[in-house]
Amino acid sequence: MTAFGRTLARGLVATVAAVGFATAAFAQMELKIMAPAAPGGGWDQTARAMQAALTQAGAAKSVQVTNVPGAGGTVGLAQFVTGAKGDGSQLMVNGFVMVGAIITNKSPVTLEQVTPIARLTGENQAIVVPANSPIKDAKDLAAALKADPAKVTWAGGSAGGTDHIMVGLFAQAVGVDPTKINYIPFSGGGEALAAILGGKVTAGVSGYGEFEGQIKAGKLRLIGIASDKRAPNVDGPTLKEQGIALEIVNWRSVVAPPGITADQKKALIEAIDKMVKSPQWQETLKAKGWDDAYMAGDAFATFLKNEQTRVGDVLKSIGLAK
Amino acid sequence: MLDQLAALGQGFLVALQPAKLLFALVGVFLGTAVGVLPGIGPALTVALLLPVTFKMDPTGSLIMFAGIYYGGMYGGSTTSILINTPGESASMITALEGNKMAKAGRGGPALATAALGSFVAGTVATVGLAFFAPALVDLAVQFGPADYFALMVLAFVTVSATFGDSPLRGLTSLFLGLLLGLVGIDALTGQARLTFGVPELLDGVEVTTLAVGLFAVGEALFVASRRKYAPEEIEPVRGSLWMTKEDWKRSWKPWLRGTALGFPIGALPAGGAEIPTFMSYTIEKKLSKHPEEFGKGAIEGVAGPEAANNASAAGTLMPLLTLGLPTSATAAILLAGFQQYGLNPGPLLFAEKPDLVWGLIASLFVANVMLVVLNLPLVGLWVRLLAIPQPWLYAGILVFASVGTIAANPSPVELIMLALFGVLGFLMRRYDYPIAPMVVGLILGPMAETQLRRALAISLGDPAVLIESPLAATLLVIALIALVAPYFLKGLERFKAAED
């Protein structure tokens, strides 16, 4: 079947590329995008959405997506840094999770080595409780946590991931020792959601999208989202307005290999810029429920550096890294 | 009930449109094809097709994806039976008896009982999906870590059925599997265990790599080593190509029992497709009138587990549709598929998009019929595979196994593991150790460990949590009975014998 799928994909790419060819002269770029994860996950979906948008917007002649799964993306990162060095036609999708995975997995290669291109999307992180929970808002949750941190059980994604880091930050923000939190990691959103719905844990943490249906159906109560201001698609308060200084966004970005020239970097940023501004990309964002978090070049490089420091500090305070 | 029947009728009107039938046919065909390839599963296929279907009609694409899912569950059994290469971890148990049957010239009936069993299970389970989804899902969500742990304990007890003649050898094999299960990032603390600095090992050992290595590669090496001295005679067809009256008689009850196990366990958010196949195999071995045939090609051992894995596929769709909970890799990607069309599976989906949901459910019935129609006539063709001269056949299997493994995970480390597991499989076969318990250990070990530790973390270390829930307590009691009953009965018999 893969052959069939590839033929289909190739056909699509060819048609689209032909259209792109006619519209843009500089769309000669043949790009390779690595999704350092298995097909289907967030990074893979991002890479494939980029593939479609880049070609349709005429920002590239052809785009090929490869998957290198493993270890929070660090297997792919290692391959990208050594294998694609100096190649101005390769890109890799990554995100917040990789920052943490590099630290907890003691990865020999880090994001210091790649060339930052742009941050693309962001997803609001939310805290929820079961609808019948006595906890009504962030203050109740903070009070419960202060009373006995071990008794507040948190369900979320894998250990050291975005959700875990967010719980650590929550504890810090309300003045509780982050090493005392009782965080229960689940693989994938589904299992965690089941545990929250079944009332097996006190609270749940994940991307807002994971909870949206259940919140609307009245089975979960939204305690707050961790953005700096209220989001248009979220009917509920932020944690910040409830007096908890906690801001975290599960962002995804795209980076280039080390050792590329300034011109190559500029060309890549231009291509991504064109893609982000295309109606195709905006349509994809809407369909997938991703927030536009576009930030390119040097601004993104600074942001990436700050996130690395912040994540490293939190992981140390949770006790996951030394 | 009537409402649901009317809605289902509406669904059939959607699913039986020619265009939708075509989507279902394409899906079933693709699914069967990828199920046959070890390593490449329905999850990967749907993921690769997602971007292509972006502009297509949502109902049609989702029907196609569901067809791929059902087809994949079925296709995995074909290679299990014929060439001892499980395409999916859920069809490993099928290889145990199925391949023995195929080697004895009974490949036809084995494939037929798998196809029909899948059909029966798929159909019954889809009925369950249509009528009991909301009620069962509420129950499934109540399953906490302690209950899961009890379920795993029960599953461990059933492993002994795969041990063969020597419990000691069986346990050795099981513990090797448990050891492999420790490799990788510890799910609860995020720390690496037994990875020796190899990043590829951080995610643990892939079940299909172990299963394909032990079963397929090990077998190929074994056959090659014996060829000179004692060539194995394989007869592609002995007796009827179809199921005899006796085969039917021995198959229908296992189909139903397999369905009864597979559907509810598949519906559990962390149930999976493997556990019901282990349980079904054990039950069939216990209930069979021909227990001596188990390990040598008992048709019940194919019929039950095959039904169980297909029923679990339908079970998995239940939490997905009603709660938006993806409980398997394929379900997770189906969820991404739903979201691509701006649909959010969950409690509101049935109310907001009845056409789509019921069309999907109806098309599952259609897909089931198509699978049987597609596969039964092919049985005759498939068994001819075994007529291929052995050196070619096994060379083909080796290529097949390597390509599948590489396609699923393009890394030299994966290929080296495949080769090492192949050698290990060869040695285990040479010295008469059963290989299935090792794979079972790798599947169950990490699940049991994670659930146990989760339960204890939630209870702040109080072990009473493991028996406090009535569900968990019941499951543990059943496990205990299953464990001690045989010894107790044996003692009783001895007692009786002494009296005589």
UniProtKB/TrEMBL annotation, chain B:
Coiled coil: none
Species of origin: Chelatococcus albus
Pfam families (UniProt xref): TctA (PF01970)
Domain DUF112: 21-439
Highest taxon of source: Bacteria
Membrane-spanning segments: 21-50, 62-83, 110-136, 148-164, 171-192, 204-224, 317-336, 356-379, 391-407, 413-428, 435-452, 472-489
Keywords: Membrane, Transmembrane, Transmembrane helix
Record keyword Transmembrane present: yes
Name of the protein in question: Tripartite tricarboxylate transporter permease
